[in-house]
# Entry
Amino acid sequence: MILVPLVVLCSLELALRLAGYGYPTDFFLRTRIDGHDFYTANVKFGFRFFPPALARAPMALRMPAVKPPNTYRIFLLGESAAVGDPDPSYGVGRYLEVLLRDRYPGTRFEVNCVAVTAINSHVILPIACECARHDGDLWIIYMGNNEVIGPFGAGTVYGPKTPSLGFIRANLAIKTTKIGQLLDATFRGLRNDPALKSWGGMKMFMNNRLRYDDPVRQRVLDHLRDNLDDILRAGVNSRTPIILSTMAVNLKDCGPFASLHRSALDAAQEPVWQGAYEQGVALEATGLFQQALVPYSKAAEIDPQFADLQFRIGHCQLALTNFAEARHNFELARDYDALAIRADTRINQIIKDAAARYNKSGVHFVDAAETLARNSPGGIPGNELFLEHVHLNFAGNYLLARTFADQVAKLLPASIAAKDTGSWDSADICDRRLALTIWDRFRIWEVIRNRIEEAPFIGESDHTTLAKMHDVELDEIRARESSETPAQAREMYRQALASSPDDHLLHANFARFLQAAGDLPGAIEEAQRVRELQPQLSGTYYYVGALLARAGKTSQAADYLSRALAIQGDSVDALNELGLIRANQQKTLEAVALFNRALRVKPQFVQTYLNLGFLEQSEGKLTEAMAHYREAARLQPQGPAEYFYRAMTAACTAQQDQVIEYLSMLIPYQPDFWQARELLGFALVLRGRNAEAQTQFAEVIRYRPDFAPAHLNLGLTLAKQRKTEPALSEFRTALQLDPRNKLAQQQIQDLMNQAPAPSVVFPR
# Structure
């Protein structure tokens, strides 16, 4: 009764392994790179904890399998705040590595960021257990923001909510087997939940609101306490010193994301509360902060747990320079936030208690929350150090790194401490070591500016103020652009790379900078260096392929994209880019198949709907094309896709002025939207604005030099302006890309015979 089922299960497990089914579950994978053994991060590590479409990949790393001599190895554990979201290039670990490297020359400091976006202590525990086996000299733990919304949390969307710890660990253990992975995939397929098919950011959690005193939140805290104990024990048992830190969050400039009344609020009391609250809001809006506190206090006596009320009281106290009272109310607003995506007072207390329990076992406590507060105006952390709710800006990451560095310095062995130069680098020096150019500052702040226009940020009571703050920051960065020329930015990158020639993040950022500057050969060279340093990653091949496509080297581009797909067959970016190349090569069936594969992996990928629609339009299938444009617009309301759909709708009824209006608003927000430029060029020609149309067609070619119709239309526009030689060149390029293009053939003959050029060709 036992032996036969056991044999069957073992046979099935073996068969699945031999067939290559499933995914590896270790965080570190041994990889051979350039003749040497390294440990790299498993991009599928998160599949055990998340549905595959929602799993966030770890930060790319390459750690020598055998720690080299004179190396001090640090593991940084945590979530997105430890990663350095939205760009790990400027995260706390990166600043820490620069600080230590410059203060203690001659030692190779290796800060391995094993933090991952969206995870929590249930995921960090197995990562810590693996770190214990890899010869670390120090752990730094900075975690706590995702306990409620992360895997197995009370507000999660990824699976079961707050089951018992025994169930969680049994579930995760089973999924280390191929049979467990097969069962998990089967159950997920039967469930067929559309919400689990595409990452939607923080807005995915909007419906999972919980009161501060909800019993399930207490269970979350119990799980954190147990997991943190096990994490610390793993480090202690491996005799690795640990720095354990509280979590700092934005209190002053981040209102609560959701507010709920206390569960025991009497129905008769609610209108009284509402009246007092609204009276306070009206007074606060007119700047009568002291007077507003009177009705606000009355409302708080009835229901103090409504988070937005506490935030507004804090705002009034701050305006009155009552800093201690303001901080207290801002902390209550965070604690009572019904969308718990910031570590609250109870979570930080659990961290403090754990540090106290293990303080004689090599665990060293750092109170980052208090340190950042001390370095904030009025002692209240806000946008001076944060990008939004929990993610630090450059100054914040530097300050946190300095806080950690001060503690690291106390733990260094005497052989390293003897090399102390006596002072830490300034923030400016660190920024230069990391090549933080004006261009990089702008692109990161722009990401955040776009982020806060989505849920849950858009629902904050202080959203308008927050948006204005970000606009001011972007304006200030623009104003400083004149202080740093592109040549100076290039030199900053070159100097940084001279100090860290194997830093793949520096090379990747330099490639992006050169691409934006129009230096495609330089960008390709840097991207190739990233691929050499991280050859196990599909994305490195994709980026080289995408740049080669921009450079018109489509055959080489297709080869790199195919290699990307050989590593990761569900890479949506590679599928989409290769689909574009095949479409422009008139290999329609192959292109459609690639686009459909991309949509099966990521049904909400807007760009693929646009590309598929444009392909169908060129095939004369306007009805099908418009259906795909409409779906893209639905997925990106008020965004470029919706404006493109509006323009296409206007184009179908020959309303060219509206087409020009919509596309002229769209293109500044997405300059590389080449299909929009093609449509705009056509509309401009119909209005007799040939010179402007010429500019748009030339831009299409800059972004997609393999798109034959753009060369044809540019040639026709040039011919109308009697620019014969440039027109002939474009017609010949169009014919080279599409040898069956009869119009290009005819135009070459007509120009040779001095015949007038027809109008441009708009996809059917």
Summary: The chain has a mean pLDDT of 94. The radius of gyration is 29 Å. DSSP finds 34 helices and eight strands in the chain.
